[in-house]
């Protein structure tokens, strides 16, 4: 049996990984039409599983690796899920897509895929890293270092959100480019031909470190994992939109990412999808909502933050 190609979609928080994943899934010819059978793994860092609710998974096999980081705390879950997929007699996927959380290091996921037990069963097709053209230059400190680490192992870099930047800003980004080995594409909303993203066998193995290295409890190898902090909040009460916007605009910059669903007063039977990425906030009506009518929000920060205060401020937004 041929090895199953695995594509890793990585990139910093909010860069547009889920958007790109959905774009890919919508373009893959469906299984029933004798197309590809794709298994999708998504990894959300926060306690609430927002991404899995956003992925269009119609006929695909969707697996959620929750509440932790795919490259460390949920690595064993990743291994177990990969084993399960490979053991399938029928329905073994033709391709696997892994969307890492925005705080994961894709090189560690590549190393997991290289464990001897997966030899001849899995092959890394490409590591794709999505870059947020709008927010990338504003990243600082450990956020910047992590975003750079993610880019440094990419075979394909997708410069996304070009609709939000001027030609000059984009040129500036490219003039300071540090990753000559990757194929680089520019786009908005991950809109790229499927052929540029899947089945390219683009992976350059030399780019990942620690080949065949399997950490165990005796291992001296230091995981230089970047620390991130998250908090989740759920409530059934509708929120006041103006108060909610003011709340988000007053958050400390270290709370870089927030996402989830909110219920707003005046439209109680609807649900709204909320995204905060760096300084940008969007709140959009969700069409054809099938889930529960309740607020579910996740906050992710590069520094510890006052969770009690955040909860109190959120509760003050309840109508
Ligand atoms: N204007 C604009 N917005 C975009 C584009 N791509 C994605 N977005 C928006 O950016 C926000 C984050 O997109 P996601 O696809 O959820 O980003 P992500 O990388 O999966 O986020 P995490 O998994 O939380 O790290 C959403 O509001 C998207 O609609 C783009 O090209 N242009």
Automatic annotation (TrEMBL):
Q: Which GO terms describe its cellular component?
A: cytoplasm
List the SUPFAM superfamilies hit by this protein, alphabetically. Hypothetical protein YjiA, C-terminal domain, P-loop containing nucleoside triphosphate hydrolases
Concerning InterPro entries, the annotation shows: CobW-likC_sf (IPR036627), CobW-like_C (IPR011629), CobW/HypB/UreG_nucleotide-bd (IPR003495), P-loop_NTPase (IPR027417), Zinc-reg_GTPase_activator (IPR051316)
Q: Which UniProt keywords apply?
A: Chaperone, Hydrolase, Nucleotide-binding
- Please list the reactions this protein catalyses: GTP + H2O = GDP + phosphate + H(+)
Report the superkingdom from the record: Bacteria
Parts of the chain that traverse the membrane: none
Q: Which family does it belong to?
A: Belongs to the SIMIBI class G3E GTPase family. ZNG1 subfamily.
Reported function: Zinc chaperone that directly transfers zinc cofactor to target proteins, thereby activating them. Zinc is transferred from the CXCC motif in the GTPase domain to the zinc binding site in target proteins in a process requiring GTP hydrolysis.
Indicate what this protein is called per its UniProt record: GTP-binding protein
